[in-house]
Amino acid sequence: MAEDNHKLFKTALKQISKGIIITNDNNKIIFANEEAKKIKNISQTELIGKDITSVHPDDTQNKIKQIMNSLQQKNVNQFTTIIANQDNQEYLNTTYKLLENENNDYIGTMQILSDKTSQIKFEEEKAKSLHKLEKQVDTLNEQLQDLFISSMTSLVKTLEAKDSYTKGHSLRVCEIATKLAEHKHDVSTEIDKIKLAGKLHDIGKVGTQETILNKSSSLSDSEFNHIKQHPIMSEEILSPIERFKPITKMVRHHHERYDGTGYPDGLKQKEIPLGSRIVSIADSYDAMTSNRPYRSPMNPKEAVREIKENLGTQFDPELGKIFLELFYEGKIEE
Ligand SMILES: [Fe+2]
Which of 143, 170, 266, 331 is geometrically suited to a Cys-Cys bond with 326, CB 3.0 to 4.6 A? Predict the structure, then answer.
């Protein structure tokens, strides 16, 4: 009966779909089923009697010795690892189990092997494809955002071209704002954003009535309230695009005043984003020196005097001083 059971167990182990290798207490292989031989790509005769360490790839043998020692000393009951065969790029998942007799003496180990090569390669391919796809999406996203920026820039140009008074205004504001940002030493990472804010700050004027924009007489309260909506509109137009997120607040607040009496939110001093404080100076200087329907252009020196007189009220005094330095050094186009 015992012999029948022994045969039955052996047959079961032979037919099991996972690779099974059994070692004795000297780490010598005493049994290996068909699947184990297939996975190890080694014949029965070559396996039986061999030290278990020797049937592993050279660069993994130390690791296997450590595992076998841990099992022998009963530090662990089992250990699972994935062993990569560098020569043929195969991956083997192996669980090493401690075998004990009824007196709890170490009598050997059983290794359960499954070939993970195709699964791991599939995972690797999947990760590679995903990475490639992510890069493609990033590139497309960049292209889309570039396209959006150029469309917005064209829209601003078209808006300004319709009106001889504001033609080229945003580009000039962008240039002055960039110079100011470049001379403020701690904003180097912000320069690109400030540049864009300078270029697109008035895009919300697309929603302002032309009759009000071009009115040569003074504005009524309701007309002025209508004009005051354009920074909010600028923010709304730009906010759906991820790359514009850092500049939406810059455009929203370009008409705030340093003393808190500006619009749309009455922010004051450092509550106003740095980019807005910079654009505000550039915007005011260009507006003052340009021809407007309601007045003739101011002489640059007069405009600069106006800025100087309004440091601390309308303009950030520190940024205003940088602007004045740049102007006196001839770095601001008159
Ligand atoms: Fe504006």
Answer: 331
- Ligand 1 centroid vs 206 CA: distance in angstroms? 11
117, 90 Cβ separation under 8 angstroms: yes
Q: What is the dihedral of CA 135, 139, 145, 150, to 10 degrees?
A: 170
Confidence of residue 1 (pLDDT cuts 50, 70, 90): low
The pLDDT tens digits of the residues spanning 283-319 come to 999 999 988 777 788 899 999 999 999 999 999 999 9
111 and 190 assigned to the same domain: no
Residue keyed to tokens 């150029």: 150
Structural domains of the chain, count: 2
> 255 alpha carbon to ligand 1 midpoint, in Å?
6
Residue 86: its pLDDT value, please? 66
130 found inside a domain: no
Centre of ligand 1 to C-alpha 323, Å, is 19
Predicted pLDDT at 108: 92
Ligand 1 center from residue 230 Cα (angstroms): 7
3-class DSSP assignment, residue 292: strand
Residues annotated catalytic, as ranges: 205
C-alpha angle 123-126-130 in degrees, rounded to nearest 5: 140
Nearest to 269, CA basis, from 230, 93, 277? 277
Same domain, 175 and 245: yes
CA distance 90 to 41: 11
